[in-house]
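BUG-143 | component: ligand-complex export | severity: low

The export step for deoxyuridine-5'-triphosphate jobs runs without errors, but we want the raw record kept on the ticket for reference. Input record follows.
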Amino acid sequence: MKIRIKYFKENMEKLTYVDGKSDWIDLRSAENVTMKAGEFRLIPLGVAMELPKGYEAHVVPRSSTFKNFGIIQTNHMGVIDESYCGDGDQWFFPAYALRDTEIHEGDRICQFRIMEHQPQICFEETDQLGHEDRGGHGSTGRK
Ligand SMILES: O=c1ccn([C@H]2C[C@H](O)[C@@H](COP(=O)(O)OP(=O)(O)OP(=O)(O)O)O2)c(=O)[nH]1
């Protein structure tokens, strides 16, 4: 599947798969970023894309992101809408720093994959669903 991509800087590393890893694709910080503990920043990822029709993209941290940079992604998972495809629609990573940290331009801070939209849902209201209760939070126990 082909995706049209615009890079915001000429010397940026192009997006690619990491050999033998998975089909998630790493994204890089497009800037040098210095953050103090407790600071919030939208870190630009240096790319905009025209996603395939019927798809959205999901952006999550890498498993090493917190260990390497001391940041967490404030929305936990970023959803890139198909309509976010303008020339200025640069992807970003909303970061909260838990310690003073430095992220360098080109550092791989998160990863994404594309996902097909869910089918369109319409809600049908009812007083009874007519099934047995499954039980609440933690109801199947610990072991
Ligand atoms: O982590 C993220 C989350 C969102 N976006 C971009 C893509 C997305 O399509 C757009 C808007 O995001 P969203 O719809 O989640 O935010 P909103 O606050 O609801 O914005 P809007 O008012 O545009 O709907 O911002 C990112 O680049 N990274």
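Assignee comment: Attached the raw record above. Residues 59, 75, 78-81, 84, 91-92, 94 surround deoxyuridine-5'-triphosphate (CB under 6 Å).
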